[in-house]
């Protein structure tokens, strides 16, 4: 009789992987290269922003008190004593019934407490002097963008572990972060195993297939935020695989392999883990696809033995490798984001194991709807192309009907979840 593997629950499997201590490191990158990276420290405001009171409109800076008597019948006149644009500071002292013509972004003269928009004034010259008048009463503070109204020095602006988006890049620049403290990308090694594997540029041959997992997993690693160190393909030969894997481990934080992990005669990963002396955390999980996913702990590294079947490989990566990578990127929510959705079609297949159906989620009338993105078999590649989510169908039921509320894991969402299990 062949080997029997006892499946553990998904919850337990994820916990075992996440319990392994894997620490992130900080590195500094130029703000230009910070997009898509993860902050390794809370970002603090290095000054008030704006750091001076400024005009939010093109107009005239005056003392609001001087407009008290203004009305439609009795405009109040101001002598215009200076004219400044953004970047300039007036050195004039503004007295009663005097004004500075000021453009958006320019610093408010110290004595002024409001800006009257150009559209609400009349301007003219008399005896070689510039004047303007207003027919309205203006309040102190009207049309002033005050120092610190955007952020106060010392405020926490963005928290550690946040993925840097264009808005955060604007914040970084505003506060002078030319170099940004980000999490170093975890180095994740990758081998695809299988004597049947052809390179992408090779013509098809009898019994052989093109290696698609390497490209898929590389993309998943990059989407997660890792640095991919691709070591190539390996034939199903024990010694070749053992030596290559042993050597590669030293160069990475974790190592992903695809294929050779089940109970077949040429599935050598289990024996390789044994010979290495790695501690196997589990070799069977109560899920479909990806039930054969095997994870081992070796020194301070994690070895992810993902299935060779493309869909199983994909799901195994997202459930187990993704959160470890995100943890090393300081994310407080390292798992895939989980949401509730309405199932669009019947899914009558019964299964003892929880199923992760490659799905397309979309929003209709404000509701999240999910529908399978293709055939639900673990050797299928096509369903992956259209998948933006995995629909979770817990096992032990007689199947699901259209209209049922289910949970989905969103693949393209960077926010993540804390602990979705
Ligand atoms: N007797 C049993 N047989 C199998 C079991 C089982 O429990 N008992 N589990 C099945 C399940 S479930 C899966 S999933 C697969 C897992 O197999 P392996 O992880 O050992 O992967 P391989 O056998 O190497 O390959 C499986 C399949 O995937 C193709 N493959 C492999 N690498 C790639 C690649 N880089 N790109 C594209 N496709 C790849 C390979 O040609 C095979 O068709 O085991 C079942 N069997
Ligand atoms: O690991 Mo397999 O993918 O469960 O079908
Ligand atoms: Mg196999």
Write structural notes for this entry:
The structure is a single chain. By secondary structure, the protein is an alpha/beta fold. It has 4 domains: 10-23 and 185-328, MoaB/Mog-like domain (Molybdenum Cofactor Biosythetic Enzyme, Chain A); 29-48 and 151-183, Alpha-Beta Complex (Molybdopterin biosynthesis moea protein, domain 2); 59-134, Molybdopterin biosynthesis moeA protein, domain 3 (Beta Complex), CATH 2.170.190; 337-410, Beta-clip (Beta Barrel), CATH 2.40.340. It is 17% helix and 30% strand. The protein has 7 helices and 24 strands. Strand 21 and strand 22 form a beta hairpin. The chain starts with 9 loop residues before the first helix and ends in an 11-residue tail after the last strand. Residues 288-292, 307, 309, 312, 378 line the site of molybdate ion. It holds the Pfam family MoeA_C.
SSE map:
Blueprint lengths: L9 H9 L7 E5 L12 E2 L14 E4 L13 E9 L13 E5 L11 E4 L3 E6 L2 E6 L21 E3 L7 H9 L4 E5 L3 E7 L3 E2 L10 E2 L2 H12 L2 E8 L3 H12 L4 E5 L10 H8 L2 E4 L4 E2 L5 E5 L2 E6 L3 H19 L8 E7 L10 E11 L2 E6 L9 H4 L3 E5 L11 E6 L11
Helix pairs in contact: 1-6, 3-6, 4-5
Ligand LQZAQKY5 binds next to helix 3 and helix 6.
EC number: 2.10.1.1
InterPro entries: MoaB/Mog-like_dom_sf, MoaB/Mog_dom, MoeA-like, MoeA_C_domain_IV, MoeA_C_domain_IV_sf, MoeA_linker/N, MoeA_linker/N_sf
GO molecular function, one term: molybdopterin molybdotransferase activity
């Amino acid at each position: 009789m062949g080997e029997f593997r006892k499946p553990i629950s998904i919850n337990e499997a994820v916990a075992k992987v996440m319990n392994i201590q894997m620490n992130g490191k900080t590195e500094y990158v130029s703000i230009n290269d910070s997009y898509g990276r993860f902050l390794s420290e809370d970002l603090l405001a290095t000054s008030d922003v704006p750091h001076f009171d400024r005009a939010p409109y093109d107009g005239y800076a005056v003392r609001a008190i001087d407009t008290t008597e203004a009305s439609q019948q009795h405009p109040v006149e101001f002598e215009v004593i200076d004219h400044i644009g953004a970047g300039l500071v007036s050195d004039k002292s503004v007295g009663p019934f005097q004004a500075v013509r000021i453009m958006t972004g320019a610093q408010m003269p110290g004595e002024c407490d409001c800006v009257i928009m150009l559209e609400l004034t009349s301007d003219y010259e008399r005896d070689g002097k510039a004047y303007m008048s207003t027919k309205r009463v203006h309040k102190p503070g009207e049309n002033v963008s005050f120092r610190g109204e955007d952020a106060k020095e010392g405020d926490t602006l963005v928290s550690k572990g946040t993925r840097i988006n264009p808005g955060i890049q604007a914040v970084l620049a505003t506060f002078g972060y030319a170099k940004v403290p980000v999490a170093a990308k975890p180095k994740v090694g990758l081998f695809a195993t299988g004597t049947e594997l052809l390179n992408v540029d090779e013509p098809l041959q009898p019994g052989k297939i093109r290696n698609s997992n390497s490209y898929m997993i590389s993309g998943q690693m990059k989407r997660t935020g890792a640095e991919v160190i691709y070591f190539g393909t390996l034939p199903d030969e024990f010694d070749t695989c053992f030596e290559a894997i042993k050597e590669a481990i030293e160069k990475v934080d974790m190592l992903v392999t695809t294929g050779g992990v089940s109970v077949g005669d040429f599935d050598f990963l289990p024996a390789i883990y044994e010979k290495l002396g790695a501690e196997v955390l589990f070799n069977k999980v109560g899920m479909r696809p990806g039930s054969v996913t095997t994870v081992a702990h070796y020194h301070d590294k994690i070895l992810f033995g993902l299935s060779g079947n493309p869909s199983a490989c994909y799901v195994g990566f997202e459930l187990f490798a993704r959160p470890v990578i995100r943890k090393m990127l300081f994310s407080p929510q390292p798992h895939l984001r989980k949401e509730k959705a309405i199932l669009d079609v019947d899914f009558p297949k019964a299964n003892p194991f929880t199923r992760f159906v490659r799905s397309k989620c979309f929003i209709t009338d404000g509701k999240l709807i999910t529908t399978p993105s293709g055939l639900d078999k673990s050797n299928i590649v096509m369903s992956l192309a259209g998948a933006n989510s995995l629909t979770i169908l817990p096992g032990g039921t007689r199947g699901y009907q259209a209209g049922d509320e289910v949970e989905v894991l969103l693949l393209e969402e960077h926010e993540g979840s804390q602990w979705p299990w």
